[in-house]
Amino acid sequence: MALAIFDLDNTLLNGDSDHAWGEFLCEKGIVDTEAYRQANDYFYEQYVAGTLDIHEFLTFALKPLAELETEQLQNLHQQFMEEKVTAMMLPKAAELLQTHKNNGDYTLIITATNRFVTGPIAAKLGVNEIIATDPEMIDGRYTGKIAGTPCFQDGKVTRLNTWLENNPYSLEGSYFYSDSNNDLPLLKLVDHPVAVDADETLTATAEQNNWKIISLR
Q1: Residue boundaries of the structural domains of the chain
Q2: Do residues 16 and 118 touch, judged by C-beta distance below 8 A?
Q3: Confidence class for position 201, pLDDT limits 50, 70, 90
Q4: pTM, to two decimals
Q5: Domain spanning 3-214: which CATH class is it, in words?
Q6: Active site residue 139
C-alpha cells in the first residue's frame, strides 16, 4: 500500500476553492463586496506567483469565519458546494482517485486551503483523509486565527511529517500530484512526483527532472 497524495485546488478541482469561497461570500453580500473581491484577487495573484505571505492571507481569509455563527457558516457552505464546487469536479480526477484505491493505495489530500472550506470537498471526493490549514476554534466558534502550522509550501512537508509520525505509512513508493510551484518542497520528497495541469514554473521543473506530466481537464 502506497501513499497517493493530492493537492486539491487546480489539481483535483478545475478551480481554486479558496478563491471561489471568497467570491461566493461577495456574491451573497456577506462581506464588503468591492474591497473583499479586490483583496481576494490580489492574494490569489500572489499565490500563483509563488510570493504569497500565508499569514497575511489567512488573517484575511479566516476573518469571515470568526464573524459568522456556526450554523450560518454550515448553511453557506452547503450552498457553496452546490453552486460552486460541483461545477469544479473533474471526471478524470475521480478516475485517478479510483485507480489508486483499486491498487490499495491510501488517498490523502494535502491543501493550503483551510479545513472549513476543504473538509466537505474531500469527503465528497471520497479520499481517506485530508491535511489542511486548520482554523482555530474555541467554544464552538472560529477565532479568525490559525491552529498550528499553515499547510503551505514547506509547511506541507512539516504537516505531512507530523502525520507520518502518527500513522502507519511512509513515503516509500509515494505519489504526489500538484499543479503549483508552491508544492515543489513536497514534490521533491516523494518517489513519484506528478505535475497536473501545472503552472509554468512547475512544468519547467518537471521537464528538467523527467517527472510525469498529466492533465485531468
Answers
A1: 3-214
A2: no
A3: very high
A4: 0.96
A5: alpha beta
A6: no
